[in-house]
Amino acid sequence: MDIRKFNFEWNGLDKHIKNLDISEYVGDSEEFVEVSLPSFVNTYGHNEKILFPLKFVEPHQYSDIIIDFKKCNWIGAAEYLASLKFEKNSLINNLFSISNRHINQEIYNLALVNRYLLFVRDYAAHEANKNNFIGSIGNGKIILSHDVDAIKVSYGLKIRQYFHTKKWPKLNRGENLNCIKEIVELEKKYGAKSIFFFNAGKKYFSIPLLDPNYKLKDLENTFSFIIKNNFTIGLHPGIISSFSLLALKSEIKNLKYFSKVSEIVTRNHWLSHFKQRTWNIQSKAEIKTDFSIGFNDRPGFRNSSLISYKPIKDLEAIPMIVMDGQFHNYIKADKDSIINFLKPIVEEIKNVGGVASINFHQRFFHSFYGYKDLYIELLEYLNEEGVL
Length: 388
Fold this sequence. Notes:
Blueprint: E1 32-36, E2 49-53, H1 74-82, H2 91-96, H3 106-109, H4 112-127, E3 141-148, H5 155-165, H6 180-188, E4 194-198, H7 220-228, E5 232-235, H8 245-259, E6 265-266, H9 276-284, E7 289-290, E8 309-312, E9 315-317, E10 320-323, H10 324-331, H11 338-352, E11 355-359, H12 372-385
Helix pairs in contact: 1-4, 11-12
């Protein structure tokens, strides 16, 4: 198991891991069990028991009563979750990233990957008699981002909105939804900078009604404004680009031509993700960072992590944990209660010193959606918590 796949601060203790008395076992169970942590490690704001995939617990005497932490493959389990190998493959899940309501929800509510790695580091510190490192964590970090699905109101956007809310939206076709300048000026007040993800798909690589349909040539002034303010332009690949290298390369070429950016970061439209296949084509297309691992229907940690993970040597995957559409289209939460949904998520980021992105579509700042005041409240909260 390769710990270099995780962007994790080992405090120089990684060289001691090979000497630890822990298992490298890999079985075939799909169940999860609870493992009691030894008293010498920190629990990082949680209790002394942690959820763990049975697949990585070596069979041993009395394991039906209590599991010996030394019989657990902690690094293997971390990679198992971070890589999404625990998810059952289905076309709907790959295309639209909907959560599994039949799985233990603690997987989505705790950053288990971070906690497994923190355990290994604390164990190494204990064995190396460097106990001052036990419990130490860095500052948590939230990366602000905005998927640009529509610049103006289109018939397709209205149909998608009706699908979610069962109400025909009171928006006029052609109405401006850009709002990007407003977002940039707002975030600058908090010393924050965000990523704007633009779709760059050609018609022959786009799926009608599902993929965005604006033209990048109409956004050259917007691109110049974003770059002038030192914000980031990213690519929001269409659904086909999540499994087609040809389509992805076409979008990259198109975005580079109109935006003049040289290095591309991505988040797939609909969070469409075919796991290793998607990561493979992203790597071949020389994408360095992707932010597609998340859910459309709920906030939380899809791969049970708040960490930058390298599924392939030259590609980083950073999770997306919160999105406006989760509340607007699925949970139907009152705007005043959304911050309360976010508090345990932010607390977990601070508990483990994690990193993740949140996504507020730029069109949600339009008065029809009415998320501007909520976003201001969110920025103030994140700033107070020290995670911006």
